[in-house]
Amino acid sequence: MTEAVWEEFPQIFKIDECETLQSEVLKNRTLIIAANRAPVTLVKNEDGEIEFQRGGGGLVTALLGLARYVNARWIGCSITEEDRQWREGVIPLENDEGEILVSFVSPDEESYTDYYNVIANPLLWFLQHSMWDFVRTPTFDARTWKAWHEGYVKVNRLFAEAIVRQIEAADKPPLVMLQDYHLYLVPRFIRETLGERKPYTLTHFVHIPWPGSEDWGMVPPAMRQAILQGLCSNDLLGFQTREDALNFIRTCESHLPDTEVNFTKGVITFHGHDTHVRDFPISIDVEALRELAATDEVAEYRRHFIERYGDRKLIVRVDRTEPSKNIVRGFAALNEMLELYPEHCGEVQFLALLVPSRMEVGEYQNYLDEIMAAAGRVNALHGDSTWEPVRVLVGEDYPRAVAAMQLYDILLVNSIADGMNLVAKEGPTVNLKDGVVILSERTGARQQLAPGALVISPCDIYATAEAMHRALIMPAEERRKRAEFLRRAVEAEDISVWLCWQLKTLAELGL
Ligand code: G6P
């Protein structure tokens, strides 16, 4: 950690520069966004009326923001029966920021289960987060292949058909922005259907890590090649980090016959088509998060935490109940820290705020059980009638999580692998205590945040315990400098920068 690191944070795009870019690049286009999740879900309220529930998170905000400049459509999978029946319609956006046409793709239940619960999560998710245990998993049996053909391939075709319909109906050349690992086959299906019949641009952003080519070597060739050919049908392909982008190019070099790759230029040529590969680290909507942090609801939770935990130092984590988040090793690290440095007993409080996730997938159910057992173990070993070292709060309550992030002395982000990890960016943005971030070197966030964080290797429980101790005894001045670095790093590259980089790249490449 050198002084120079703290000095400069160039604002990568000024706000007006970003706005000009968005309106310039988009003014002669039709925008088509496709993601597994639509930006809204429809539900019936108590009076039987249909209501729109807007999805949370910066991605939805940033992409919906584009509707100000352009005729925009969003295609996603239906979740509720109301989504299914509604099928398609225009949704007005908040603050008069235009409107967006939302279309739902509605596969039958079995196809959706095969696509989402068998192939996307866990198969692809586990592969891309290095969570396979090759002695036992994965297995590709008849059930897996059925799920591939009748689930993943089928739902990707449904998406492609819906997008093709929108491309055909568009009056200006469409820009299609595909999101994530659910839709790897879609670009190829679009090109096969439309060929050169109409001008359009395909971009795809992969939000999760892209592991090395050896891991992809364990996927049967037919599946692997379909995925790589799908992604190499895009014009611009984005990853979270430079390493993910390089890993992708290497994977194509090793596993996609007839491909030419150029590492320096970041171009893959497959069957005469160029795919430009870049990294665009995603971020958060800093302004919206700070607005939420300033609400009474968050203040109320903050008061409650302060009352309940008093002067104890808070170690906080905020995660989905997700095996890749490495929650069990996080508790083991606390246990080790208390054994190595018993002076912290009674002085710290570990607060784990966990949102249940993908509970239809067996691995996720088991993991929640393991989390609760691991927390119980630490409490049994170190707690007494006046102190319970670990508190696990399960449930979706974002304002409560924001309050906890305002108060942490330590934020623990020890993921086994993580495309970005937005908690590592949210925490320093709202934290009020110059808290220290302990960050896994296997998160995408480490590319930008490493100099301000205490970086650990996620399986190294001892190093994580030592990092906790170091953070607890860290001099105030070092804490302040680190917290400031993290805050300014996130402010300089927020979610609008993620979007602007992509649009700027499209403009520079003439796509
Ligand atoms: C990750 C993925 C997203 C996904 C999200 C929540 O961030 O990159 O595509 O939407 O997790 O997962 P879920 O399965 O609930 O959509």
Tell me the number of strands.
18
Portion in helices: 40-55%
Radius of gyration: 23 Å
pLDDT averaged residue by residue: 94
The low-confidence runs, each spanning 5 or more residues with pLDDT under 50, are: 1-6
Query: Beta-sheet strand percentage?
Result: 15-25%
Query: How many angstroms separate the termini?
Result: 40 Å
Overall SS class = alpha/beta
Bound compounds, each kind once, are: 6-O-phosphono-alpha-D-glucopyranose
Strand order of the largest sheet: 5-6-4-1-7-8-9-12-11-10
Biggest sheet features = 10 strands, mixed
**Helix segment count?**
20
Shape assignment:
globular
Draw up the topology in text:
Blueprint: H1 3-7, H2 15-26, E1 30-37, E2 40-44, E3 50-54, H3 58-65, E4 71-77, H4 81-86, E5 88-92, E6 99-105, H5 109-128, H6 142-169, E7 174-179, H7 186-194, E8 201-205, H8 213-216, H9 221-231, E9 236-239, H10 242-255, E10 259-262, E11 267-270, E12 273-279, H11 286-293, H12 296-309, E13 313-320, H13 327-340, E14 348-355, H14 362-382, E15 390-394, H15 398-407, E16 410-413, H16 423-430, E17 436-440, H17 446-449, E18 454-456, H18 461-473, H19 476-492, H20 495-509
Parallel strand pairs: 1-4, 1-7, 4-6, 7-8, 8-9, 9-12, 13-14, 13-16, 14-15, 16-17, 17-18
Antiparallel strand pairs: 2-3, 5-6, 10-11, 11-12
The structure holds 6-O-phosphono-alpha-D-glucopyranose.
Summarize the structure in words.
This protein has 511 residues and is of the alpha/beta class. It has 20 helices and 18 strands. The strands form three sheets. Strands 5-6-4-1-7-8-9-12-11-10 form a ten-stranded mixed beta sheet. Strands 15-14-13-16-17-18 form a six-stranded parallel beta sheet, sandwiched between helices. It has a two-stranded antiparallel ribbon with strand order 2-3. The model is unreliable at 1-6 (pLDDT under 50). The chain binds 6-O-phosphono-alpha-D-glucopyranose.
